[in-house]
Structure formats: structure tokens, C-alpha cells
Amino acid sequence: MKHASDDAVAVRLSGLTVKRGHREVLSGLTLDIAVGKVTGVLGPSGCGKTTLLRSIVGAQANVGGDVRVLGLPAGSRELRTRVAYATQAASVYDDLSVMQNLGFFASALGAPKGDAERVVDLVGLRNEAKQRVESLSGGQRNRVSLAAALLGSPELIVLDEPTVGLDPVLRAELWDLFARLAGEGAALIVSSHVMDEALRCDRLLLLREGEVIADTTPHALLSDTGAPDPESAFLEVIRAHEGGAS
Ligand SMILES: Nc1ncnc2c1ncn2[C@@H]1O[C@H](COP(=O)(O)OP(=O)(O)OP(=O)(O)O)[C@@H](O)[C@H]1O
């Protein structure tokens, strides 16, 4: 029988361990990620953020332990339209326009007619809609990828560093959008190495060398460490973790 609370769980990790090459990149992660919230995966370059996201969307090899997504094993066929993933490198066609790309992905996903129009507005690319992707700036290309990830109505939206290369205004707008989507009931998992973005998340997972060293909220991160900003708070958490580990 299903537990009632399972409906609120988008992702359940049980002892997730990943080896890449000879290295253990993630070491036994056990945690649940809730629906209706923006969960931030924060941490320095190389700490395992992308590997964690790839494991959740079923794109990672050599995964040990168990990863359940919306109650199903990660990567299950049934999850194809229910889970969206935007990678760091924009995965769109250079020789097509923004709208042609979105139209293509919309029909591949079976998204409703008009959905490409909806998402192009969501990511603020209306003026560039007819432009070929190859002529866009890096930040604009990433937004095409993000728009493609928002097609249909995914229940879980996994975004790998979606705000890289964006100006502060656009960044703030996208974080507003993430909060709105979570408010509508989606689960969002957003990675970033910009600690200030931590403040926009409902929950924070701070990752370091493949381990979750803090599972907290922006408010608790600042109040527990007494640090003035998330960057110093993160350093404080690392110091405390290393002190405790030695
Ligand atoms: N094939 C491989 N062999 C050995 N190590 C690997 C391999 N692929 C990735 N790694 C290592 O795994 C670690 C985690 O990589 P991952 O891409 O998940 O980090 P990240 O936190 O997303 O980094 P960034 O913020 O720079 O994108 C890194 O230290 C990386 O060097």
C-alpha cells in the first residue's frame, strides 16, 4: 500500500553512490525531495552536482543504491514526459529558430498546441523567437533549453545551472518563475555554484566532495552559522564539517 506522504515526494534517494572513472563521485546519499518546492543543489565546481542531477533523471551510468522518481525507478520510460531536464550545455538545434526548436520539442513530447508560445514568453525570448539559435548569445541559448524543459507540464523539473551567463535582472526573473512553478505544484531541483542564489530556494542541499554536508533552508543556514551572507555561511559549514570529521 502507498503511504499518503509518498504523494509529496518527488525524488527518493536511498544510498545513492556513483563512480566515475576510479573515483567515487557521490557517496551514499539518502534523502527525499518534495513536490511544490525549489530545492537548490549548491556547492563548488566538481563537488558532484551534475552527477546527482544526472542520476535523478536516469542519465548517469554506474549508479549504486536506489533512485525513485515520482514513485518509479529513475529513467523509467513512463517518466519521459513527467520529468524535464535542462543540461548546462544548451541541447538545441543551431540551424533552427527558437520557435522551430520549441515546436519540434513540443511535438516530440506531445505537448499541447500553443505550448511553444507559452514557454517562449516564460523565458523572455519573445523578441528572439524567429532568430536562429546559432545567432543567439550564450545566455539566450541556455534560455531556449530552459524553455524546452518547461514544455508540457513536467512534475519534476531538473535544471543544471540555469542562470549561468545571465544578467541580474533576468536571473531574478527566472528565480521568480521557478518559485511560481513550485507554487503550482511542480518539484524543482536547481543546481548552482552561485551562493547568493541559495536565498531563492526553499531548501538547500550543500554538496562537497560527493557528500551532502548541509540539508537546510536559507533562513536556517544564515541563522545557524551567524554568517552575513550565504557565501560565508557555506564556508562556515565546511569548516564545521571538517572540524567534526577530523
Ligand atoms: N569519467 C570521469 N572519471 C573520473 N572523474 C570524473 C569523470 N567524470 C566526472 N568526474 C569527476 O566527478 C566529479 C563530479 O563532477 P560533476 O560534473 O558532477 O561536478 P559539478 O559539481 O557539477 O561541477 P561543475 O559545477 O563544475 O559543473 C568531478 O570532480 C569530476 O572531475
**SSE order:** EEEHEEEHHHEHEEEHH
* Bound molecule kinds, no repeats: adenosine-5'-triphosphate
| Main sheet attributes: strand count, strand direction, barrel closure | 6 strands, mixed
Distance between the termini: 43 Å
> Could you name the ranges where pLDDT drops below 50 across 5 or more consecutive residues?
none
Number of strands: 10
Q: Return Rg in Å.
A: 18 Å
CATH topology of the largest domain: Rossmann fold
Percent strand:
25-35%
Q: Percent helix among the residues?
A: 25-40%
* CATH architecture classification of the largest domain: 3-Layer(aba) Sandwich
Determine the mean pLDDT.
91
What topology, given as strand order, has the largest sheet?
Answer: 6-7-8-3-9-10
- Based on CA inertia axes, which overall geometry fits? globular
Secondary-structure-based class equals alpha/beta
Can you tell me the CATH class of the largest domain? Alpha Beta
Number of distinct helices:
7
**What's the number of structural domains?**
2
How would you name the CATH homologous superfamily of the largest domain?
A: P-loop containing nucleotide triphosphate hydrolases
GO molecular function: ATP binding; ATP hydrolysis activity
Pfam families: ABC_tran (PF00005)
InterPro entries: AAA+_ATPase, ABC_transporter-like_ATP-bd, ABC_transporter-like_CS, P-loop_NTPase
Protein name: ABC transporter ATP-binding protein
Characteristic terms for this protein:
246 residues, alpha/beta, Rossmann fold, 2 domains, 6-stranded mixed β-sheet, 4-stranded antiparallel β-sheet, 33% helix, binds adenosine-5'-triphosphate, ABC transporter ATP-binding protein, P-loop_NTPase, ATP-binding, AAA+_ATPase, ATP binding
